[in-house]
Task: inverse folding
């Protein structure tokens, strides 16, 4: 089903302005069941034509990032914190603690309020259960969330501009080169 662009924009705006990551999901879920009005917020579109009232959906939808099994049809069935830890365990053991001090979240979901705190908490819990050579404490874990979903793209665009301005185009990969050589083209540049 294709959602019209205007409606999609309203959904995105409502998500950005109302949704958040719960730091105590089960407690909030129980509280919302007891008194739903405490969790209700109203979204009004910029043009004033759309009004939407959201309750516990505000924190239940983002919870899927941390607990995908809440929606059995969701793929992949791996949480964000499990994916981060899995990536780190594929690196050399000596750099794992340093990686945990430099976790950066980027993209649309990184704009949810409390996401960095929750990822830090969840990583700490996972490492406490199964250290996998992380050799670090919960206090040493640092997670930041980029507030603007476009920041990573803007950073890349600035890097490309600077490389071109300095005449260093050795790291730049053209679309044509990628289509010709596929993934092997990356080896040439990096």
Result:
């Amino acid at each position: 089903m294709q959602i019209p662009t205007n409606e999609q924009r309203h959904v995105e705006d409502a998500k950005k302005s109302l949704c958040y990551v719960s730091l105590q999901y089960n407690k909030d879920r129980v509280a919302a069941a007891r008194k739903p009005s405490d969790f209700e917020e109203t979204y009004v579109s910029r043009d004033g034509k759309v009004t939407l009232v959201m309750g516990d959906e505000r924190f239940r939808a983002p919870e899927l990032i941390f607990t995908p099994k809440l929606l059995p049809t969701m793929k992949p069935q791996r949480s964000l914190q499990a994916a981060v830890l899995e990536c780190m365990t594929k690196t050399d053991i000596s750099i794992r603690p340093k990686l945990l001090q430099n976790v950066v979240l980027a993209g649309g979901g990184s704009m949810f309020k409390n996401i960095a705190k929750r990822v830090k908490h969840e990583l700490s819990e996972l490492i406490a259960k199964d250290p996998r050579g992380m050799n670090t404490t919960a206090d040493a874990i640092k997670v930041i969330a980029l507030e603007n979903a476009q920041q990573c793209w803007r950073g890349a665009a600035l890097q490309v501009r600077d490389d071109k301005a300095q005449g260093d185009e050795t790291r730049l990969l053209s679309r044509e080169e990628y289509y010709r050589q596929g993934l092997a083209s990356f080896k040439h540049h990096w």
Strands lie at 41-44, 51-54, 103-105, 143-145. The first strand starts at residue 41 and ends at 44. The radius of gyration is 21 Å.
